[in-house]
């Protein structure tokens, strides 16, 4: 069986997009969708748990697609920061989704061309 990474950058990006769509919509559920923003949460602890759980789901998706725990940790952090900005109403749904997709593009570039810049 050929891995997704071996199928090339376009297949890898498509896999990241599919996993992102699953994690951000059907796997999120009403509770996480509402409580992952401070404004929608019943308490600070509900907010932290919901936002963290949502980000862990996304990080798990990146790990499954890439096989990289490092990229999963990056996703955990970047997804949290991006959703924090949206939850604080710094921007809306479209910029939020574009930021998430930009992260996925970055992961594709890292996996395709390596971690360091050319000498």
Structure characterization notes:
The protein is mainly α and 119 residues long. The protein has one domain (10-111). The protein has 5 helices and no strands. α1 packs antiparallel against α3 (44-66).
Structural key phrases:
119 residues, mainly alpha, 5 helices
Care to count the β-strands? 0
Helix-strand topology string: HHHHH
Radius of gyration based on Cα positions? 15 Å
Oligomerization = single chain
Described by strand count, sense and barrel closure, the largest sheet is: none
| Helix content estimate | over 70%
Q: Which structural class best describes the helix and strand composition?
A: mainly alpha
The gross shape turns out to be: elongated
Q: Give the mean pLDDT.
A: 94
> Which range does the strand content fall in?
under 5%
Weakly predicted, low-confidence segments: none
- How many distinct folded domains? 1
Number of helical stretches of at least 4 residues: 5
- End-to-end separation in angstroms reads 34 Å
In short:
The chain is mostly helical and 119 residues long.
């Amino acid at each position: 069986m050929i891995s997704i990474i071996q199928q090339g950058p376009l297949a890898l990006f498509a896999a990241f997009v599919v996993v992102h769509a699953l994690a951000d919509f059907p796997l999120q559920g009403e509770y996480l969708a509402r409580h992952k923003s401070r404004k929608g949460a019943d308490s600070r602890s509900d907010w932290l748990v919901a936002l963290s759980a949502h980000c862990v789901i996304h990080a798990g998706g990146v790990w499954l697609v890439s096989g990289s725990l490092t990229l999963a940790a990056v996703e955990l952090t970047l997804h949290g920061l991006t959703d924090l900005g949206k939850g604080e109403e710094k921007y809306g749904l479209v910029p939020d989704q574009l930021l998430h997709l930009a992260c996925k593009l970055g992961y594709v570039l890292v996996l395709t061309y390596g971690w360091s810049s050319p000498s």
